[in-house]
């Protein structure tokens, strides 16, 4: 699992109490701030690779954080093509990095890669 040291860009404000929940990313339990987007929670936890590109198999991560670029696709609770920047985190989520071509069967939120 590609987790780096925590970025100073994704740290909660000091002195502000934030409730936490447990999720799982690629089989590893991760404690994250409740109520924020999955993308923000994973970035705050140090995750730097959310999916691999179809061409070149290059690592990809959230870019726009507002549902436009589709770089943040992950699999959430077995459903592929979920836009992590538009999905609120909740306790018990099982999130996996998405590899390869997205499945356009209509199961996920996104409609393009």
From TrEMBL:
PROSITE patterns: PROKAR_LIPOPROTEIN. Keywords: Oxidoreductase. This is NAD(FAD)-dependent dehydrogenase. It comes from Caballeronia sordidicola (Burkholderia sordidicola). Pfam families: Fer2_4. The keyword Oxidoreductase applies. Signal peptide: none annotated. The keyword Oxidoreductase applies. GO terms for molecular function: iron-sulfur cluster binding; oxidoreductase activity. It comes from the Bacteria.
């Amino acid at each position: 699992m590609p987790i780096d040291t925590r970025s100073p860009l994704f740290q909660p404000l000091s002195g502000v109490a934030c409730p936490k929940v447990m999720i799982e990313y690629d089989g590893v339990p991760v404690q994250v701030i409740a109520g924020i987007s999955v993308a923000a929670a994973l970035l705050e936890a140090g995750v730097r690779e959310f999916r691999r590109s179809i061409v070149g198999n290059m690592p990809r991560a959230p870019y726009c954080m507002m549902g436009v670029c589709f770089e943040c696709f992950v699999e959430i609770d077995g459903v592929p093509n979920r836009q992590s920047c538009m999905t609120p985190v909740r306790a018990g989520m099982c999130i996996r990095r998405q590899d390869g071509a997205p499945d356009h069967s209509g199961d996920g939120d996104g409609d393009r890669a």
